[in-house]
Amino acid sequence: MKKILCFASSNSSKSINHQLVSFAASQIAGHNVEIIKLTDYDLPMFGEDIEREKGHPVDLKMLYNKIKEADALVISVNEHNGMVSAYFKNTIDWLSRNDRNFLEGKKILLMSTSNGRRGAASSLEYTKNVLPRFGANIIESFSFLSFSENFSAETKSISNEVLLLGFNDVLQNFVHQIQQ
C-alpha cells in the first residue's frame, strides 16, 4: 500500500482544481490517500530578505514533511492568465529553497482544469517542465477542459463520458506505475 498525497495548486476557497483532485483521490482504492489544502500552510511571498531575516516558516517544514512522507502525489494546477498562479509558484519557491530536490523519488499524476476549452493546458505544460528540476517523476498528466460543463457539482464526479474514460485510463496507469 502506497501513501498518496493529493492537493490543488489554487488558493481559492471554491477551487475547481480542488474538486478535481478530490474526485481523483476518491477513485484510488487500496492505498492510503490524503487530500490537503495548500492554504492550510501559511507561506509569505518568497523573498531572499525574508528568508535571510526570518528563516523558513514552520508551515513550510510541515508541508515539506507531508510531501517527503508520501510515495506519490496527485496535483491539480490552476491557471491565471495562461500561467501557473503566483500562489503555486510561491509554494514551489519556498519548497525548493528548503530542499532543492524536495520531489526526489516522487511519482506524480499532474492534472489541470479550468472553465475554458484548454483546461489550463498552459499551466499544466509549464508545471510538467518545472517539477522534474526538483526530482519529480511525472508519470501521467491530464488536462480537463470546460470544468463546469463536464463535472457535476451534485454528484462530485465527471459527467462527460468521454472525458471520464480518458481520466480513468490516466488514473489507472498512474496507480499501476506507483505499485512497481
Automatic annotation (TrEMBL):
Name of the protein this chain belongs to: Putative flavoprotein
GO molecular function, one term: FMN binding
Pfam family, one: FMN_red
Native organism taxonomy: Bacteria, Pseudomonadati, Bacteroidota, Flavobacteriia, Flavobacteriales
Superkingdom of the organism of origin: Bacteria
GO cellular component: cytosol
SUPFAM superfamilies: Flavoproteins
InterPro entries: Flavoprotein-like_sf (IPR029039), FMN_Rdtase-like_dom (IPR005025), NAD(P)H-dep_reductase (IPR050712)
The NADPH-dependent FMN reductase-like domain, residue ranges: 3-144
